[in-house]
Design goal:
The complex is a heterodimer of chains A (328) and B (327).
Chain A (H helix, E strand, L loop, with lengths): L1 H26 L7 E3 L2 E3 L1 H8 L1 H15 L7 H19 L1 H25 L4 H20 L3 E3 L3 H8 L1 E2 L2 E2 H18 L3 H10 L1 H6 L4 H27 L1 E3 L7 H11 L11 H20 L6 H17 L6 H9 L1
Antiparallel strand pairs in A: 1-2, 3-6, 4-5
Helix pairs in contact in A: 1-13, 2-13, 3-8, 3-11, 3-12, 3-13, 4-5, 4-6, 4-11, 5-6, 5-11, 7-11, 9-11, 12-13, 13-14
Chain B lengths: L5 H19 L6 H10 L1 H15 L7 H17 L5 H25 L4 H19 L4 E2 L3 H8 L1 E3 L5 E3 H19 L1 H11 L1 H6 L4 H27 L1 E2 L7 H11 L11 H21 L5 H25 L13
Antiparallel strand pairs in B: 1-4, 2-3
Helix pairs in contact in B: 1-13, 2-8, 2-13, 3-8, 3-9, 3-11, 3-12, 3-13, 4-5, 4-6, 4-11, 5-6, 5-11, 8-9, 12-13, 13-14
The chains are: A mainly alpha (328), B mainly alpha (327).
């Protein structure tokens, strides 16, 4: 029964992804072509996975936060901070230090958000707004307002290298999906997170450490955001505190929502959130390939958000109820 | 809770900040600086007034920055490309904004969806539509624009109270009157206190929601017109991130983000505090603009923590709900 439910849940998203890929194929006949060059796969399909990696990583953290009925608006700013730290340390101190410092910063950012939400009891949207506003300033402070470039080859590899022919960002993306999935679904953790989102008070009475759960998901979200920031910086071999991760928090939330996770918490799917991120990226790529101005992106996204939300809305369940409601 | 209203704290922060600036730069305490503070933040003051209504009613409007951008492009193209008289263009865009806000409010109410995500879609829509109209900055050369920008009330001490500053002050005054002295305003507070109770009291929750978001969008449109006066151009990338600035201004102004409490006067102070930080940075000359964001973030945290502490005292009974998304 549960298995069937899950399958039918994911069906709409998979079909949507396939339809969009088919449309991409229609506007660009060589869309599905793959070729091997310099030990790395190339092609539009790989491109979708590669370009979509930051948003996919963000949505991996975001989906857990949203499952607890929260939201994290600061992930874009955390990306900028992590990218700035990694870029400024990479050349002088080497890749391990840079990576550790950037991930550590993401961890701290997540702890801060989690502290505000879980301990101080501030609404998530408000609590994370603080870091969203201040975080970009902090990132600019680190880079002193300049675009910091670096050449450390092992960090650059994270953006442009390949593992067994798969681009490194895609490998990281898949690796994180497997790790998160193993931790969350391989144990009772996922269930506890869903319980917290479904009814925090009841879960607490049932003996679940809801505060620890909430703290943990924000920390994980901060880590994922830092990783996304590092990859974005490695991709352009530099950190741009002004634009790194700008508005990506919205894309990540959108990916999670498209993936069928309700903003009201209580139920989530990691894989479908990733599919959501791929749908967004396939749309972006398709619009670019079709030669339409990229400005269409935002309009299409707006339409998709509305349609998905309408489908999720409890009031939309029966059209009659909606009409009756509207007539009042 | 009764001791000191949040607005008083905001006012004290502003006065202290101004005194600090004056101590460092003796020229700071002039009507010139004060008038510029009002002019430079005129559009933010207008849009934050609308945001105050939305937040007090328990909602949030993320679309305002995009609506400002859309408005500047629409006005510029209508006047410059189509030759529409400016006043007709203004009327048209305000009507359009009203319809836009009403649509968002209706979706929020009818489908019972979180305002956050509905206005997020509105933000994408308005920004995308302005990109579609034009991606280039269009200068506006209509005679009305130079008339307006030349107009100013001269203050003693060399300050110039410009037309857009006066418009902002008028909007703030009208907003305060609407919020504090009318039935509409009382209903806004009631909605923020409790939606269910408000509905049981017989207040039409649906039409209130529609009207509140309509007000916010119309004021965002007006802010866009003022912004186009300020820059004499229409540009689709203008006012990116203004929604955050205005939410920050509202919160620093002492309005409760959970709704039910707040004031327009506080919001004006919140706007002026942000302007003050910017002006200080300009005076200093060595600090960079990113300090604005950091200091705004710190103030934001201080005020939210303050609110939380006050709420904690007010509702000692019962444990807090952790991690609840406002809907």
């Amino acid at each position: 029964m549960m298995q069937r439910l899950l399958q039918s849940r994911g069906l709409a998203q998979i079909i949507a992804l396939l339809v969009i890929l088919a449309l991409d194929r229609a506007v660009s006949p060589q869309f599905f072509d793959l070729r091997m060059q310099d030990g790395r796969l190339f092609g539009s399909l790989i491109d979708v996975l590669n370009r979509g990696a930051p948003v996919a990583l963000l949505s991996l953290g975001m989906v857990l936060v949203i499952a607890t009925r929260g939201i994290d608006l600061s992930v874009g700013a955390v990306m900028a901070i992590a990218g700035a730290i990694a870029a400024s340390l990479a050349d002088a101190h080497g890749m391990p230090v840079a990576l550790a410092a950037a991930l550590g910063a993401g961890l701290l950012c997540g702890l801060w958000n989690g502290f505000l939400v879980a301990v101080l009891g501030i609404q998530p949207i408000v609590a994370t707004l603080i870091l969203m506003v201040a975080g970009r300033g902090v990132a600019q402070l680190i880079t002193e307002g300049r675009i910091v470039t670096f050449t450390a080859p092992d960090l650059v590899w994270l953006g442009n290298g390949a593992v067994l022919g798969v681009p490194a960002p895609v490998a990281v993306e898949l690796g994180m999906l497997v790790i998160t999935g193993a931790v969350v679904r391989g144990s009772a953790l996922g269930l506890l997170i869903e319980a917290t989102g479904g009814n925090a008070r009841a879960s607490e009475l049932a003996g679940i450490g809801t505060r620890a759960m909430i703290l943990a998901v924000y920390v994980w979200c901060g880590l994922c955001a830092a990783l996304a920031g590092i990859i974005a910086a490695a991709d352009i071999m530099g950190a741009d505190a002004n634009n790194a991760g700008l508005w990506l928090e919205l894309d990540a939330i959108l990916a999670v929502v498209i993936g069928g996770t309700s903003l009201f918490g209580g139920r989530f799917s990691l894989v479908l959130a990733m599919v959501g991120a791929l749908i967004i990226q396939a749309m972006n790529t398709g619009i670019l390939l079709s030669g339409y101005p990229p400005e269409f992106n935002l309009l299409v996204k707006a339409a998709v958000v509305l349609v998905v939300l309408l489908l999720q809305s409890p009031r939309f369940a029966s059209a009659g109820a909606v009409l009756g409601r509207a007539r009042q | 809770m009764r001791g000191l209203p949040p607005v008083a704290i905001t006012a004290m922060v502003f006065v202290a900040g101004f005194a600090l600036c004056t101590a460092q730069f003796p020229n700071f305490a002039s009507t010139r600086v004060a008038a510029n503070l009002l002019t430079d933040n005129a559009f933010l003051g207008i849009v934050a007034t609308g945001m105050t209504f939305v937040i007090i009613s328990g909602g949030i409007d993320l679309s305002v920055g995009s609506v400002i951008g859309f408005t500047t492009v629409f006005v510029a193209l209508a006047i410059e490309r189509l030759g529409v008289p400016p006043l007709v263009a203004f009327a048209a865009i305000l009507l359009l904004c009203a319809a836009f806000g009403a649509a968002m409010g209706a979706i929020i109410h009818v489908f019972d969806m979180p305002p956050f995500i509905v206005t997020l879609a509105g933000m994408f829509l308005a920004r995308g539509a302005s990109f579609l109209m034009s991606t280039e900055s269009t200068p506006i050369t209509a005679p009305l624009y130079s008339t307006v920008s030349d107009f100013a009330l001269r203050l003693p001490g060399g300050g110039r109270l410009t037309a857009i500053a006066l418009i902002m002050l008028a909007v703030v005054a009208a907003g305060a009157a609407l919020l504090h002295f009318t039935r509409f305003g009382a209903n806004v507070y009631a909605l923020g206190g409790s939606r269910a109770t408000t509905a049981l009291m017989g207040i039409p929750v649906g039409s209130m929601t529609v009207r509140i978001y309509m007000l916010s969008s119309v004021l965002a449109g007006l802010a866009g017109i003022v912004f186009s006066f300020y820059t004499a151009a229409g540009y689709s990338l203008s006012a990116v991130g203004v929604e955050l600035d205005s939410i920050a201004a509202v919160v620093i102004g002492g309005t409760l983000l959970t709704g039910g409490q707040g004031s327009v006067a506080g919001t004006l102070l919140g706007v002026l505090i942000q302007g003050l930080i910017q002006t200080y940075i300009n005076f200093d000359g060595t600090l960079s603009s990113w300090w604005t964001k950091i200091v705004t973030g710190i103030l934001l945290f201080a005020f939210i923590a303050l609110q939380q502490a006050m709420l904690g005292i007010a509702s000692r009974a019962g444990p807090r709900k952790a991690g609840v998304l406002k809907s």
